[in-house]
Amino acid sequence: MSTSTAQQLPLEPPSSDGAAPAAPKGHPKGLYVLFATEMWERFSYYGMRALLVLYLLNYLQFQPADSSSVFKWYTSLVYLTPLLGGFLADRYLGLRASIIMGAVLMAIGHFLMAFEPLPLFYAALAFLIAGNGFFKPNISTLVGKLYKQGDARRDGAFTIFYMGINIGAFLSPLICGWLRRNMGPTPGMGYHWGFAAAGVGMVLSLIIFLVGQKQVLRDVAAAGNLDEIAPKKKDATVAQAAAEEPDEQVPSTGGFGGLIAKVFPWLLFALAVVVPVRFITQAVAGHEPWTNVIMPTVFSAIGAWMGWTLLTIKNAARDKSTVIFVLFTFVVLFWMAFEQAGNALNIWAAYNTATLDFGLFAVEGEDYQAANALFIVAFAPLFAMMWTGLARRGLEISTAAKMLAAMVLITASFGAMVAGAAAENATVTRVPLASLPPGVQLETLNAGRFGYEPGTQELTVRGVLAPFAVTNALRPTVDKTYMGQVEALEAAARNASPERPTTFQFTDLPQGYTFPLQGGAVSAWDASSRTVTMVAGLSPLTKAQLVGAGAPPAWREAITSLAEKSKAAQVSGFWLLLSYLLATFGELCLSPVGLSMVTKLAPTRFASLFMGVWLLSSAVAQYVGGSLGEKWGEIVPTSYFAIFVYSSLVGAVVLLILQAPLKRLMHSVR
């Protein structure tokens, strides 16, 4: 967000007496229509995101590697599709139709999330991804079209609009999280209520835009921009816009900066070959699924395209353009860490963090995701005043220096998480256990945080034993014959209903077996005949309970007791809040200046293209960060959070070294 005030320019010719007419006061009513539209759309997005990983882990019984895989695909595509959506809006659909189409698709997607079957869940994600591609890039553009060129109110309008984003992002985790914890068939399992609330938010967004679109169009027309929001035919003269821009007449810089500008396109070409080859080789060897080849190849192809584009730009214009792509790397590192909020930090908040009780209200689970939006609203004006005050005193900080500050702050943010995780890992919980079940290898379970002491006959765990780790520990000890019977029960009960109940008889049960299900899908259980009557199909959660019941009783009792007692290892939520605060400070150093920097450095004929590619940094970051998230549960939390300390710290050091060369490559631009 940029909160600086643009220089006020006259919007009309001076009057006959030589006095410039007063600038319009207030903002067009259409701005508040778009404010409310975006607020409720962001409510729906962040509400759904707050629940997504926890739903996959707790309700669908995914392991962290699988939940992070879904998360990385969803969030990376959400940030990739706006490139296509913006192009289609520009060439074929226009802004208004694209926004309506996107809102309808997302509303469908959110309501599909309220249904349980897995195919509908994946269909819901597809609708959300497609809808976001149409909606997201075009509503922001429409805000700008409410104002004439040079209108001093434009910056203020985007500040108001950005506040709408953060109000939605603040409210949604609180409301959807509360519904998850307090509604539904059992406490903590009201996920579909939360998803439905996100759907209501999206419908409200759509209704507000449909009702207010005439006002928006009137305001766009008053600004003289009505033609600019309609589909545009390709201008044949664009291909002939080879007339060199002023910067292409200015000699490029020399020294190390000049070397970077010369070498960088060829580095992009090299990466465009090396990265896909690496993933294809891994897939051929069976070390990576073939689906993991897709996105790296797409990103590499875009990188090669940008390398070729840089070679078509000359002299100082290439220097400035190179800065955009060099800083792109550090922006990816920043967002890769920052966006752990929806994945690893969300898991940490749910299982490893104690509830913060403030008397009138408590903060737990998804609530922590509201912290970033709250801190943005509180501190963004202060940062804006700080940048403005420094510039007024001739101490303006360069874009590269602000991004360096962002890298330092995100390093500190995850340093706080490492400290909190170290405190959690230091707590050891013990329960009695005569011996380990045959074949159990503790070092392969729960990131190696289990331990067994034969002398005292105790099973131990460091830190908190999360529910998904309990499932993962029980499953390998379940007899295969019993596992097959659970699969047969699942198949038999698929179409069960109160009107058409299904009866299933287990042929054999493990010694000391206790049937774990009561009520819900089960209408009766006869232990003597080992017969169960089902009136609904097995959900992933009830299936996991059935599977766990087949584990050796002593092992099952030890693991479940350990999980309950290990909650004493939960650490204060202030670690998370401190991490979010430092990350938000970093965001305020990086996010507002990035878009502005592209507009200052990009050649005119590539301004839109480079802006789209700059926004692509979030897609790359989400994919890489989600791929790292697949390691959660396989490595200890301290080591996981340390990944982002090291990556951000290395980025900060490299960016520090590049400050002088980048300054020269930017020529006179700050």
Provide keyphrases for this structure.
8 strands, mainly alpha, globular, 3-stranded antiparallel sheet, Growth Hormone, Chain: A, single chain
What does this protein structure show overall?
- It is a single chain.
- The chain has a 3-stranded antiparallel beta sheet with strand order 3-5-4, covered by helices on one side. Strands 6-8-7 form a 3-stranded antiparallel beta sheet, with no helix packed on it. Strands 1-2 form a two-stranded antiparallel sheet.
- It is globular, with a radius of gyration of 28 Å.
- Helices cover 63% and strands 5% of the residues.
- It has helices spanning 29-59, 64-93, 95-112, 118-144, 154-182, 191-222, 255-284, 294-311, 315-338, 344-352, 371-392, 399-425, 467-474, 480-492, 540-549, 553-565, 574-601, 607-629, 637-657, 659-665; strands spanning 356-357, 362-363, 428-432, 450-453, 458-462, 502-505, 522-526, 531-534.
- By secondary structure, it is mainly α.
- It has 20 helices and 8 strands.
- Helix 12 (399-425) packs antiparallel against helix 17 (574-601).
- It has 4 domains: 29-232, MFS general substrate transporter like domains (Growth Hormone, Chain: A, Up-down Bundle), CATH 1.20.1250.20; 254-312; 333-429 and 566-670, Growth Hormone, Chain: A (Up-down Bundle); 479-550, no CATH class.
- Pfam families: PTR2.
- GO terms for molecular function: peptide transmembrane transporter activity.
- It is a multi-pass membrane protein.
- Residues 14-25 have a biased composition (Low complexity).
- It comes from Stigmatella aurantiaca.
